[in-house]
Amino acid sequence: MPDFLPGVELARLFYTEAVRPLLGDRPHAAARLGPGSDVLGHDTARSTDHDWGPRLELFVEDPGDLHRMLAEKLPRRFRGWPTHFVPPGARVRSMADTDGPVDHYVTVTALGPWLHGLLGFDPRDGVTPFDWLATPWQRLAEITGGAVFHDPAGELTDVRRRLAWYPGDLWRHVLAGQWRRIAEEEAFVGRTAEAGDDLGSRILTARLCREVGRLALLLARRWPPYGKWLMHTLGADPVVPHLRTAVRAADGSGRQAALCTAYELAAARQNALGLSAAPPAVRREFFDRGYAVIGGDRFADALRDAITDPVLRRLPLAGSVDQVVDSTDVLVSPPLCRAVMSAFVPR
């Protein structure tokens, strides 16, 4: 196989050298966006076995026979990588050689239908609070990640700008929802250990590490990806060593101590942002039981009190769809995401 190079860079070269010359003066935009580890910047040589290769998104208002023309005229290999993918039309496809026309991985579509398919709405018409809260973070990462190669009308670039990050009050609302998730279980690490349930304490610790990781990314204005890439995306964030210590700790006290250090770092970061009043970013005892906690509700309540939008102030602190459901089947379906969130957010 050829030497590995990041998929977004391969897509850029594929567009510039192989696809663009075939388009003539046809108006279009071109990018590598949507699902794929390459869009998040996490692809490696392992990624080349499926949904990776010379591929891109080509946006044209009238696709016509463009897909067929590319199948007939694209080279069968580009930079050593096959441009043909199998099986035809499958959800997961892999590169393969062919002697005939290539079943390529250039998505040829109008921008509007593509946006509706990925997000459930078209941001060019505006982005409502419901749209924000019903859109999974992974989808927002997929449309604001990757790269745009050609966008003379600027529509795709404007969509990415609109979805770069939450407006202020929505950011507060989602952060409050994340603190509430921590508050719901932070005392259980100690209680399960005290009850002799070491496995339960370890599982709860891992769950809370996930929530702290997502909180850290939200505070850094970065869309948290789904589980496979969450900790990888955190990289060298200051909370990471303490999360590592927490999951390795031999007893409940060690787990609580490491988690509380991570909580304190996140709380101090939030206080420094000036998004709300600043509760003391220090651990405390859970009532009189001796379990160390941060008291996540303090930070959730401070954020809610700082929200000025009257509609958002009345919402339950459930946050976004990612904080309401964990089902992948829901989170990959815009209609299901929007159906779930209609129970929480007025449209």
Tell me about this structure:
The protein is α+β, with helices and mostly antiparallel strands. 51% of the residues lie in helices and 9% in strands. It is built from 18 helices and ten strands. The strands form four sheets. It has a four-stranded mixed sheet with strand order 7-2-1-8. A two-stranded antiparallel sheet has the order 3-4. A two-stranded antiparallel ribbon has the order 5-6. Strand 5 and strand 6 form a beta hairpin. The model has no long low-confidence stretch (mean pLDDT 96).
What's the topology here?
Blueprint: H1 7-23, E1 29-32, H2 37-40, E2 55-59, H3 66-73, E3 77-78, E4 81-82, E5 84-86, E6 94-96, E7 105-109, H4 111-119, H5 129-133, H6 137-144, E8 147-150, H7 155-162, H8 168-185, H9 188-194, H10 198-219, H11 227-234, H12 240-248, H13 252-273, E9 284-285, E10 292-293, H14 296-306, H15 310-314, H16 321-324, H17 328-331, H18 334-341
Parallel strand pairs: 2-7
Antiparallel strand pairs: 1-2, 1-8, 3-4, 5-6, 9-10
Helix pairs in contact: 8-10, 8-14, 9-10, 9-13, 10-11, 10-12, 10-13, 12-13
